[in-house]
Amino acid sequence: MGTDKNGDLLFPSGGYRRLKSFQLAQLIYDITVRFVELYIPAESRTCDQMVQAARSGVQNIAEGSG
């Protein structure tokens, strides 16, 4: 596990943006949005579900950091 510059195991609240899991979730969200724009009809419920699922992954990490 990583530590911050003070040797603490956990980053202070709000440090979630540096987490690899958050960065990966953000990348997945961005790719999902682009994929949906290109290949899924905008009026489709599938479009909404895919974007909401990707967004919730990012949001869960942010909320868990608090």
Find the count of extended strands (DSSP E, 2+ residues): 0
Distance between the termini: 19 Å
- Element order: H for helix, E for strand: HH
| Uncertain residue segments | none
Radius of gyration: 15 Å
β-sheet strand percentage? under 5%
pLDDT averaged over residues: 86
Oligomer: single chain
Q: What does the largest sheet look like?
A: none
**Which of globular, elongated, flat, extended, rod-shaped describes the shape?**
elongated
Tally of DSSP helical segments: 2
Instruction: Assign the structural class, choosing from mainly alpha, mainly beta, alpha/beta, alpha+beta, or little secondary structure.
Output: mainly alpha
Approximately how much helix is present in the residues? Answer: 55-70%
For the structure shown, list the relevant keywords.
mainly alpha, 0% strand, 66 residues
What does this protein look like?
This protein is mainly alpha-helical and about 70 residues long. It has two helices and no strands. It has helices at about 20-40, 45-65. Helix 1 packs antiparallel against helix 2. About 5% of the residues are buried. The mean pLDDT is about 85.
Summary, kept brief:
This protein is mainly α and 66 residues long. The protein has helices at residues 20-39, 45-65.
List the helices and strands and how they pair.
Elements: H1 20-39, H2 45-65
Helix pairs in contact: 1-2
